[in-house]
Amino acid sequence: MKATPLSNCERRFLLRAIEERKRLDGRQCYDYRNIRISFGPDYGCCIVELGNTRVLAQVSCELVPPKPNRPTEGILFFNLELSPMAAPGFEPGRQSDLLVKLNRLIERCLRNSKCIDTESLCVVASKKVWQIRLDLHLLNHDGNIIDAASIAGIVALCHFRRPDVSVQGEEVTVYTPEERDPVPLSIHHMPICVSFAFFQQGTYLLVDPSEREERVMDGVLVIAMNKHCEICTIQSSGGIMLVKDQVLRCSKITAVKVAEITELIQKALENEQKVRKEGGKFGFAESIPDQKITAFKMESAAVDTNNVEEQAEEIITKADPPSEVFAKPILHTPGTAQIGEGIENSWGDLEESDREAAAEEEGESEAIAFECQNMETEDTMKETKKDEPVVLSDSEEEEVILEPPEPPRRTRTQTNSKQGNTSKQAFNKRRKKKRAA
């Protein structure tokens, strides 16, 4: 399913607003959207929200043999997934050009910048090393995926804790979190990507473009930098040519934004560790408002269960009895009607005019019923057969039976006899003619 394209009117409106230094969400040209970080119940799981763009990050680890050319270094693996849940234009199971570009950029930002000490992941040289896997899932797409993914990736890596191990000879023992506290990763710095969108061949510049702004931009510049103002990677895409002054201006803006985002990440990590130690509400639970219905249990309240029967009897005796006890569930009140079989009429008292009208209606109904009864009797009399005798009884002793007179019937014997005589006469005439001949 392809994404819904922008109409010409929307495109002209967006470009005209950018020329006037205005944005649809009310931001200034160099403003970032609000960043929100929430951690999961396990180490290495977090969700980063950059405006309406949401990315879920999960870090996992396992012991594997090292690479032959690097026997004393651990292995880092990064994977970004764009699911149709985030936007209808993303197809499942297909590596689009955008996905390939984003994965390569994340690898250059996190692996090639050497932000993680890979030698600290070695357990036994040439035999066992830790493989760290970072999975990024785009939950909602509203523009600037790379910035949200880079922030989510570095936050998850900083929050992750690997199990502690011990080596005795060639035997490697991996301890559970209950036996030994997990060990955090050794991270030297935090590279963070900042994206710049250019319009009208680099004339206008916007920081953190939204999804609609990305559709009408001419090109984009991505700079990955840490808080020490060290550029980790830089990439430009699109059909624009940037001059040196534009790149220097973008790098200065990136230094300011990276310092703010790094401070925000450090505060979020400190607060999460503090709340986790105190045993309060941590993880995704802190992002759910208290007013909404959740699956969390209510706080238990102390209840005294001693002498329950005596307390119940006291409550019953102290309670006042009801003022009225209704034997029937139906309450008859004036001005209301009750519909049902066997229920009394509950209309209020009728006035004189209403009574007269009701009496007239009753008389008319009785007359109509009487006429209907007479008509039914006449119909039944008509339906009696003509051949049946009619019995008239004036008293119980004498009964007179009147039978209806039988109508005269024409028999077929007479007609048959006449036809027989004529046929005999004709036969005799023929016979006489034959003899005479």
Automatic annotation (TrEMBL):
Annotated Basic and acidic residues bias: 379-389
Q: Which UniProt keywords apply?
A: Cytoplasm, Exosome, Nucleus, RNA-binding, rRNA processing
Which spans does this entry mark as compositional bias, Basic residues? Answer: 427-437
Q: Where is the composition biased (Polar residues)?
A: 414-426
Domain Exoribonuclease phosphorolytic, which positions? 32-163, 189-253
Question: Which Gene3D superfamilies does its entry note?
Answer: GHMP Kinase, N-terminal domain (3.30.230.70)
Question: Where in or outside the cell is it found?
Answer: Cytoplasm; Nucleus, Nucleolus
Annotated region Disordered: where?
349-368, 375-437
Q: What is its main location?
A: cytoplasm
Provide any one GO MF term from the record: mRNA 3'-UTR AU-rich region binding
Q: Which residues form a coiled coil?
A: none
Query: Which GO biological process categories is it annotated with?
Result: exonucleolytic trimming to generate mature 3'-end of 5.8S rRNA from tricistronic rRNA transcript (SSU-rRNA, 5.8S rRNA, LSU-rRNA); nuclear mRNA surveillance; nuclear polyadenylation-dependent rRNA catabolic process; rRNA catabolic process; TRAMP-dependent tRNA surveillance pathway; U1 snRNA 3'-end processing; U4 snRNA 3'-end processing; U5 snRNA 3'-end processing
Q: Which GO terms describe its cellular component?
A: cytoplasmic exosome (RNase complex); nuclear exosome (RNase complex); nucleolus
**Which Pfam families does this one have?**
RNase_PH (PF01138), RNase_PH_C (PF03725)
Positions with biased composition (Acidic residues): 349-365
Similarity comment text for this entry: Belongs to the RNase PH family.
Q: What name does this protein carry?
A: Exosome complex component RRP45
Tell me the organism. Bucco capensis (collared puffbird)
What is this protein's gene name? Exosc9
